[in-house]
Amino acid sequence: DYYTSRARPPGAGLSLEPQHELKFKELFTDVVTANLKLSNPTDRKMCFKVKTTAPCSYCVRPNSAVIDAGTSINVSVMLQPFDYDPNEKSKHKFIKQSMLAPADTSDMEAVWKDAKPEELMHLKLRCVFELPTENDMLYDRNKIVSTTATKTDSSVMSKSVSPSSEAPVILQIESLFFLGLSLR
């Protein structure tokens, strides 16, 4: 494999979390975001660039930057909406390229263009798409309900909630219908 054969040993550059897979777990009808954490354990500034095999499917922010020694940066990878087929295996991949930052980083395009192959360090991530389970969806609905409940006028809520143990369930169901969500 081209990238693995050219990769430096672990710890020779920026560390990456997660290390091997970038998981997207949603319905894929809206933008789905996964986060990467890039850490610079070295004592020198490093620069990085994130590339993908499917550039039209993702928005990466920031997609390149300089990271000071001993610091970290969070990178958001936003998967654009698409028609998900669970029978189709994702072939999308990301590669993180990094190198020691030169003294002048004012023109990063030139820095990357002039970089020598032996200066570059590569880490590869594959993308995994997962549909949420029924439990995930119930958890998300409860999050929506509790967020809505905190924004609701407490005097209205106190009239709706009785001391019975079924009150929270009734409140959740009413709130879901109010929000236009169904329980199916």
Automatic annotation (TrEMBL):
Transmembrane segments: none annotated. Its main location: endoplasmic reticulum. GO terms for cellular component: endoplasmic reticulum membrane; plasma membrane. It is found in: Endoplasmic reticulum membrane. GO terms for molecular function: FFAT motif binding. Belongs to the VAMP-associated protein (VAP) (TC 9.B.17) family. InterPro entries: Ig-like_fold, MSP_dom, PapD-like_sf, VAP. The lineage of its organism: Eukaryota, Metazoa, Chordata, Craniata, Vertebrata. It comes from Dromaius novaehollandiae (Emu). Keywords: Acetylation, Coiled coil, Endoplasmic reticulum, Isopeptide bond, Membrane, Phosphoprotein, Transmembrane, Transmembrane helix, Ubl conjugation, Unfolded protein response. This is MSP domain-containing protein. SUPFAM superfamilies: PapD-like. Residues 13-130 form the MSP domain. It is a single-pass type IV membrane protein.
